Amino acid sequence: MQPDPDWAITLDHLANRSHDRLTSILLRLAFQVTVYYIWSKPAKPGHYLARVIDKSIRNCITSTRYFEKSKLVGLLQRWFTSME
Predict the structure, then answer these.
(1) Is the pLDDT of residue 2 over 70?
(2) Which terminal residue of the chain, N or C, has fewer Cβ atoms less than 10 Å from its own Cβ?
(3) What are all long-range contacts of 52-56, with beta carbons under 8 Å and residues at least 24 apart?
(4) Residue 72 has what DSSP assignment?
(5) Can you tell me the distance from the alpha carbon of 71 to that of 40, in angstroms, rounded to the nearest whole number?
(6) Which long-range contacts (CB under 8 A, 24 or more apart) does 56-62 make?
(7) Tell me, what's the pLDDT at 37?
(8) What's the rounded Cα separation, in Å, for the pair 80 and 11?
(9) What is d(CA 15, CA 73) in angstroms, rounded to the nearest whole number?
(10) pTM for this structure?
(11) Which helix (H) or strand (E) holds 15?
(12) Residue 1 has pLDDT above 60, yes or no
């Protein structure tokens, strides 16, 4: 997904595009975490935000036990490969 500064296009892409299950979950999770940190910590530098967003998504995946559900077993691996 290419970033787009237009919120309407971004939200439409998240809501209406067909992605496989893991990609859809990761896109929505990354969007939610990113919006939260941008609005809650607006004065932090970009490298800080990237690190804390990555860590928050990893924590969310492991704490909600996504990895134990058979349909979502590759979620954490997909996140790691998307970060390469």
Answers:
(1) no
(2) C
(3) 54/83
(4) G
(5) 33
(6) 57/26, 57/29, 57/30, 57/33, 60/29, 60/33, 61/29
(7) 87
(8) 24
(9) 23
(10) 0.74
(11) helix 7-16
(12) no
- Whether residue 51 contacts residue 41, with contact meaning beta carbons closer than 8 Å, is answered with no
Tell me, what DSSP letter sits at residue 17?
S
Tell me: the pLDDT tens digits for 15-57? 877 788 888 888 889 889 988 988 887 777 777 888 898 999 9
CA gap 60, 15 in Å, rounded? 21
Amino acid at 70: S
**Tens-digit pLDDT profile for residues 62-74:** 887 766 777 777 8
Which residues contact residue 21 at a Cβ distance below 8 angstroms, ignoring those fewer than 6 apart? 71, 72
